[in-house]
Here is the input.
Amino acid sequence: MNKVLGVKLKNFRCHEDFELECPQSTTMIVGENGSGKTSIIEAIYLALRGKSFKGVDREILRRGADFYRAEILLSDAQKVVIRFDGVKKSFEIDHKKSLRLPKKYRYPVVLFEPDDLHLVGSSPSRRRDYFDEFFKQIDANYGVVLSRYAKALRQRNDLLKDEAVSRDTLFSWNVLLAHYGSEILQRRISNLKKINALLTDNYRGIAKNEDECSLEYLGEKDLSENRYMEILERNFERDTLLGYTSFGVHRDDFEFIFNGEKADGSASRGEIRSIILALKFIEAEVLEMELNKKPVVLLDDIFSELDDMRQQHLIENFKDYQMIMTSTNALRGINGELLNL
Here is the structure.
């Protein structure tokens, strides 16, 4: 298990100079809103995953500064140094620099933000983004295919804005969208089965009842490349009028089902929060199972959104992982390093 042992930040968001040591398995960072707690989580995520979950580099750069630097020390004696000079970002590991964090150095992370608790009732794009990020961690090829699909989609949409676009012009992009889109669909369905196999049991472990919950994929579930091509061709006139691609996996959705009904509308606020907690526990379990690595758990200011019972479930279920948490208040029952900002 790789662990985060220390963080050093220079001109990172509101932090001009900041240092944090994380010698314990649990670190609680306590501070008022706006004190920079989330920025610390963001820097750790950036070092382990290679990108921010909050914004682009210019937004991270402290106001008035011309560079930022983040240094994350890991327990395998590896140090990840991230620099942004106002134009480009670089990663340095073992004195080797690269513009992106190499895949072999990416480490699994379970990130839990307050917004995740609203996932059930959020927009389809928010749910797609959530599950796409999860699937990219457990399936390296998923991210590659998703990126290629997105590139082909941008090209096709750009062409559709031209009133003179023809079917022949779109043909090659249709082929790419059908190829990558059908593969994304297969991988999503496969990964969803892994989640559904665990979701009800994890939920019942929190709620202590016999309710059932699952995830349903909203979109065509049996879509070959040929079928995908046929639909794109059939939608030609519609897409030219709209100016964008109206069909594809980029428009599909994930729906939460609670006792046979849509959870959004049938499940209570507390039940929905238990569903999301169960989903997060599954995220850690599946990451460890698929990658044979215990993920680092980053909990960003979510305790104010949970009652005491769910707080305790959260702490208990993640006790075997390194947890780095932020909160506006110190919590009862938390043993570990405490940092006040």
In short: The mean pLDDT is 94. The CA atoms of residues 119 and 127 lie 6 Å apart.
